[in-house]
Amino acid sequence: MHRALDRKIADIRPVLQPEALLRAREVVSEIYLDTKIEQYILDLVFSTRQPANFHLTELENYISHGASPRATINLALAAKAAAFMDRRGYVTPDDVKSVIYEVMRHRIGLSYEAEAEQITTEDIIDRLVAQVEVP
């Protein structure tokens, strides 16, 4: 018999009722996102598609395809969730930075050149965060 099957399964208990989770979702959707932060998110996403427009010409050969518009939506939602977790009613640039890797990592396609030079999506995101102007 497999050892994992011999182990006793932990006593799992809910920590939230479904209603509380749905209410938290509503609150997250109401978190304030200033137009300057919206533009910052747009700039971060567009910089993956048009790096030269953001003074990132060195990245053009490393990105085969940039993040889609869905990245913009999800980056905004994740930043709102980060603000919620920090008990704030508004999003800051640091909220965006705190979630950008999880949201964008799989949305940027690397070129063969990037792979040959062992450039990762994290390296690309590092440059975006360092270069794109923060409001």
Which tags fit this structure?
single chain; 135 residues; mainly alpha; Helicase, Ruva Protein, domain 3; two-stranded antiparallel sheet; 2 strands
Describe the structure.
The chain has 135 residues and is mainly α. The protein has a single domain, classed as Helicase, Ruva Protein, domain 3. It is built from seven helices and two strands. The protein has helices at residues 3-6, 18-30, 35-49, 69-85, 93-104, 112-116, 121-131; strands at 63-65, 109-110. The chain has a two-stranded antiparallel ribbon. The longest helix has 17 residues, at 69-85. It is flat. The model has no long low-confidence stretch (mean pLDDT 91).
Strand arrangement in the largest pleated sheet: 1-2
The CATH class: Mainly Alpha
Radius of gyration: 19 Å
User: Overall 3D geometry?
Assistant: flat
What is the mean pLDDT? 91
The helix content is: 55-70%
Short note summarizing the structure:
With 135 residues, the protein is mainly α. The protein contains seven helices and two strands.
Task: Please give the structural blueprint.
Layout lengths: L2 H4 L11 H13 L4 H15 L13 E3 L3 H17 L7 H12 L4 E2 L1 H5 L4 H11 L4
Antiparallel strand pairs: 1-2
Helix pairs in contact: 3-4, 4-5, 5-7
